[in-house]
Hints:
The protein is about 45% helix and about 20% strand. It is an alpha+beta fold.
Amino acid sequence: xxxxxxxxxxxxxxxxxxxxxxxxLEAIQIMADRHVGALPVLxxxxxxxxxxERDYARKVILLGRSSAETPVWQIMSAPAITVAPxxxxxxxMEIMTERRIRHLPVIDDSGRMVGxxxxxxxxxxxxxxxxxxxxxxxxxxxx
Length: 143
């Protein structure tokens, strides 16, 4: 069964983050520059929550707040739901579906953030895994 550590090995371990006291505008700029839909929010180097495009739309835009004046901590989702590198991709998809979230920070045994996965990453990994299985079965059948 496909594990998060395998997904990160192919995807990479790069994680961009934002400090909890930064203005929301800074978080949105990082997301736009890095082409990501969410960022882990850090306070004192520790994971404090997560900010997503959805948080921005619902808690800044719809409420008429200023993204330049609102600190990230006021709109972040906290606590962040996390997974371990040994978790299965299937279970991550179940968590994301049940909790209606699209991103999961990956935390190792020492409590260090080692990556971030999205629902898109999981879907791509499952599709690739299924393609490999189909090819193996076709080779087995043909010969």
